[in-house]
Amino acid sequence: MTQTPVRIRRHLPPEKKYAILEELRQNTGSKSEILRREGLYTTDVQRYEAIAREGAIRALGQSKPGRKRSHEVSTEEHELLKRELARKDKALSELAVEFTILKKKVNGE
Description:
Elements: H1 14-26, H2 31-38, H3 42-62, H4 75-107
């Protein structure tokens, strides 16, 4: 009495599933060899193809032609950033003056 091999369920990462789909698309010979090697059924491949198609349609639907618009910033946020930049510029200039004074003291000028 021969036993049929029990199919072991395993989790394939998405990259591997896509690689299998690509290999099946490029293969002109027997696709059953690839399926046997990977332990898959044709229904698995059909499911992968459907998922890949849905993902591609969704991604293409989200892409918009033309240039990307610049990020809009509210006037309040713009003013806040300007004040922060001015504060940091002032602090930097004060530190530069202190550094110059310390440098002169060290060099004996």
